[in-house]
Design brief:
- The chain is of the alpha+beta class and 172 residues long.
- The chain contains five helices and five strands; from the N terminus they run H-E-E-H-E-E-E-H-H-H.
- Strands 1-2-5-4-3 form a five-stranded mixed β-sheet, sandwiched between helices.
- A hairpin with a 2-residue loop joins strand 4 and strand 5.
- Helix 3 packs across helix 4 and helix 3 packs across helix 5.
- The protein starts with 8 loop residues before the first helix and ends in an 11-residue tail after the last helix.
- The mean pLDDT is 94.
């Protein structure tokens, strides 16, 4: 499930971001998020992207074109639109679309920034991910549920450092 950090992940992100812009809006701000954005982090080999859109109507305007480019809607996430790309039936990319008004408070961006700046928390998160894989293999917890408490604690601290209130990080 988790693989060693792949130095090609930033290039894979850049290619996916360019492809999203070509089927969406060329002015979209797109950032690499998730564990593949953290150098040295073991991760599922899935590139996560945060896409800043004007609003829900902006997403809807481009949805058909994104689908023609190989992206499809499909996620348990409730808080924002998500599209995925697969290769040979395997998920390779997840694009999260966030309204511009919410951009500065997006937990995925806040977590990425914090982990890049705080190696001790990055190491703690790395260990939580490995423990979550083991819990999922034993059937005692899902991968996301098992790492959730550590993510919540880290995001709470990162949000507090930015003067933002704590919010539930679970969006499923």
């Amino acid at each position: 499930m988790l693989v060693a950090y792949d130095p090609s992940w930033p290039e894979q992100f850049a290619a996916a971001a360019a492809q999203l812009r070509s089927h969406g809006d060329s002015d979209w701000v797109i950032e690499h998020i998730g564990s593949t954005a953290i150098p040295g982090m073991r991760a599922k080999p899935i590139i996560d992207l945060a896409v800043r859109i004007a609003d829900a109507a902006d997403f809807e305007r481009h949805r058909d074109s994104l689908e023609s480019g190989g992206w499809r809607q499909g996620s348990a996430v409730r808080s924002h639109p998500v599209m995925v790309r697969e290769q040979e039936g395997v998920r390779t990319h997840i694009a999260h679309f966030f309204a511009a008004a919410d951009w500065d408070a997006v937990n995925q961006r806040i977590l990425r920034d914090w982990l890049l700046e705080n190696p001790a928390d990055a190491d703690r998160y790395r260990h939580a991910k490995c423990a979550a894989v083991a819990a999922a293999a034993r059937g005692t917890s899902s991968y996301n549920a098992a790492k959730g408490p550590v993510i919540q604690e880290i995001v709470d601290r990162a949000r507090a450092a930015r003067g933002l209130p704590s919010v539930d990080v679970s969006d499923k």
